[in-house]
Amino acid sequence: MRRAIAHIRFVLRRFACTSSAAAAVEFALILPLLLTLYLGSVELSSAISVDKRVATVSGSLGDLVARADGSITSTTIDDYFLAASATMAPYPSTGVKQVVSSIFVNSSGVAKVSWSRGYNGATKHAVNSTYTLPTDLKNLALNSYVIVSEAQMSYLPLFGYFFETAFTLYHEYFFLPRFDEAIACTGC
């Protein structure tokens, strides 16, 4: 029995004198911080990546519509919506709402909607409703048209540790028609 107690004392003394136990304790103390940093960076980088994809969707849609030469059909715009949604890969595009509108800016700088088309549950803008454009853009587009493309998506974080609820990613882009004329939309 004495031998067993002496051996236990020896083992405990040796454990207390070794510095490898200090490393284990230090690692145990720093592990929660390291995991928090890792999971936070994964969530943040994923949110940034999806936000860039939503911006690409909006930009692609507006660019395609602005290339139309005088007129475009609602079927063609629907195809553009689908093509723009494909740029969300590898992320799901099911929740991406898109709107494209043609805005006329009169000589007084008042911007009104000529036509608008929504996709995937997005609400289109009412025809002849006023639309707020940046002042510099209004001055540039007096007596002319502006194509406005919008895309939004409700983003739900991967883990939910840092961002507990979904938040909306939204992008709006402005394009002048390539051929400097009105783009009529048939069926919009």
Name its key features.
188 residues, alpha+beta, 4 helices, 6 strands, rod-shaped
Distance between the termini: 93 Å
Mean pLDDT: 88
One letter per element, helices H and strands E, the order comes to: HHEHEEHEEE
Low-confidence stretches: none
Strand tally is: 6
Largest sheet: 4 strands, antiparallel
Portion of residues within helices: 40-55%
- Could you state the oligomeric state of the chains shown? single chain
> What is the general shape?
rod-shaped
Number of helices: 4
The secondary-structure class comes to alpha+beta
Describe the structure.
The chain is of the alpha+beta class. The protein has one domain. The chain contains 4 helices and 6 strands; from the N terminus they run ααβαββαβββ. It has helices at 2-17, 20-66, 74-86, 135-140, and strands at residues 71-73, 97-105, 111-119, 144-155, 167-175, 184-186. It has a 4-stranded antiparallel sheet with strand order 3-2-4-5, with helices on one face. β2 and β3 (111-119) form a beta hairpin. The chain is rod-shaped. The model has no long low-confidence stretch (mean pLDDT 88).
